Amino acid sequence: MSARHVRPTNDRPRISAGRGVTTFYARHVMDLTFRPWVHDDLTFLWEMLLQSLHVREGQAPFMRSVLQNPEIAHYLTDLGRRVDDDAQVCLNSDAVRIGAAWVRRMTADDPGFGYVGDDVPEVGMAVEAGWRGRGIGRRLLQDLLVRHPAMSLSVDDENLSAARLYRSLGFVPTASVEGSTTMYRAGP
């Protein structure tokens, strides 16, 4: 999928050529492309899953082997085979992937950390460290919310910036357990 880039006169996203592909320009001259995931994004999505695991202050980062834990792996294993499996990916001007958000419906038999019901997809997301704080996570989540207006998530209580982002997009806390809060956003 290719995108035709048009330099806008303001900060609003501009629709570009190609279904579901959007180009975004910000004040600090970022040229980013947001698009639905393709199978070739899977390796990157697994990397983003690892980065989405909040590391508390003073703790060592998670080892890659944590992705083999069934409680973590079920977020992406066989992505695309379940109803409503979806993801949105952000690429920089060099076509390098720098962030992603994904949704998957979990079940009561195999719930995620932010599970609220079998009919509500759970979202996970991450942005590469050097690109955080520029609105990329917000945009990824907004793009998914267009396609999946109701969703849930789990956020570590120490991750205040993420919790603020989720609240600003209509997510409300529903439960707190062991330092994490489950949040839910109802659809229209």
Account of the protein in words:
The chain is an alpha+beta fold and 188 residues long. Helix content is 19%, strand content 28%. It is globular, with a radius of gyration of 16 Å. The two termini are 31 Å apart.
Number of helical elements: 4
How many beta strands in the DSSP annotation? 9
Strand line-up in the sheet with most strands: 1-2-3-4-5-6
Q: What Rg, in angstroms, do the CA atoms define?
A: 16 Å
| Biggest β-sheet strands, sense, barrel | 6 strands, antiparallel
Termini separation (Å)?
31 Å
Bulk shape:
globular
Outline the low-pLDDT stretches.
Answer: 1-19, 23-29
Oligomer: single chain
Mean pLDDT: 87
Q: What topology does this entry show?
A:
Layout: E1 14-15, E2 22-25, E3 31-36, H1 42-52, H2 70-73, E4 86-91, E5 97-105, E6 121-127, H3 136-147, E7 151-156, H4 160-168, E8 172-177, E9 180-185
For the structure shown, list the relevant keywords.
188 residues, alpha+beta, six-stranded antiparallel beta sheet, three-stranded antiparallel beta sheet, globular, disordered N terminus
Describe what is shown at a glance:
This protein has 188 residues and is α+β, with helices and mostly antiparallel strands. It has helices at residues 42-52, 70-73, 136-147, 160-168; strands at 14-15, 22-25, 31-36, 86-91, 97-105, 121-127, 151-156, 172-177, 180-185.
